[in-house]
Write a structure and sequence with these properties.
Helix content is about 55%, strand content about 10%. It is α/β, with parallel strands linked by helices.
Length: about 260
């Protein structure tokens, strides 16, 4: 099956050209602004990656990226921002909001194709890692003592607030006594994950542990790990582990 790319750009001509370039390798969905794209994401759980222009009416790429990366239902979807703003400040803004890659216009389509393929492959490896063993929030790299201390404090801060559905980058930065930008850069440098991904993985890791080790109902676990609906929890869990919470529970506790 082809993976699905969501393209967002208000320039219809550019949108059609880019769609034609990607169609051979991917299923392509197009929208013309961030609000249309949010509506699309809300009703389509099969999107694997997003390619979004920055300058758009209604909702620009920065605002769109901020919303995507702060929403538990689809913050795992990689976002590539496209922009003609060739400034360091613009690049930092995009990455600080959680963008997974930042490409300046004009660009070579081959460059975009490589970025898309790499981000999807990395996401697949991450999903497989946590599907097989929900043990660590990082990639198991060798960290310095200071880095390990930071990770230990980060893990504890998240664990202590897992039931808070509003736990996000800003709250986590406050708990860690650092700035949003500082937290993002530190986590990115150590784990190649965003703060929102770290939070979401921690929620799902704890949920997996509760499913395997307790007799709690799925709806109880849903709220214990910070989700406000069982549907949202089930969708995220399935994306992360490749199976539903019920299937996972039966796998880990076949006699239950």
């Amino acid at each position: 099956m082809k993976r699905t790319v969501l393209l967002i750009d208000d320039n219809l001509e550019f949108l059609e050209v880019l769609k034609d370039e990607l169609t051979e390798a991917y299923e392509v969905i197009t929208t013309q602004n961030g609000q249309e794209a949010i509506d699309c994401l809300t009703h389509n759980s099969d999107i694997d990656i997003i390619v979004c222009d920055v300058m758009m009416p209604v909702m620009d790429g920065f605002e769109f990226c901020k919303i995507v990366k702060s929403n538990l239902e689809f913050n795992y979807v990689p976002v590539i921002l496209l922009t003609a703003q060739n400034t360091l400040k613009s690049r930092i803004t995009g990455l600080d909001l959680g963008a997974d890659a930042y490409i300046e216009k004009p660009f070579d389509v081959e460059h975009l194709l490589v970025q898309i393929a790499n981000l999807i492959a990395n996401r697949d490896k991450l999903r497989m890692h946590f599907s097989l063993s929900a043990i660590s929030n990082s990639k198991g790299l060798n960290h310095s003592s200071n880095d390990q201390s930071f990770l230990d404090k980060l893990n504890q801060a998240i664990f202590d607030n897992l039931d808070d559905q509003f736990l996000d980058v800003d709250k986590l930065a406050n708990l860690m006594n650092t700035s949003r930008t500082g937290l993002f850069r530190k986590i990115k440098s150590l784990s190649d994950l965003t703060p929102n991904e770290i939070i979401n993985i921690a929620r799902l890791k704890r949920a997996a542990e509760l499913l395997a080790e307790t007799d709690l109902k799925i709806f109880e676990i849903t709220y214990m790990v910070g989700y406000n609906s069982q549907t949202s929890f089930g969708r995220s869990f399935c994306k992360q582990f490749g199976m539903t919470p019920t299937e996972y529970q039966k796998l880990k506790k076949p006699g239950a």
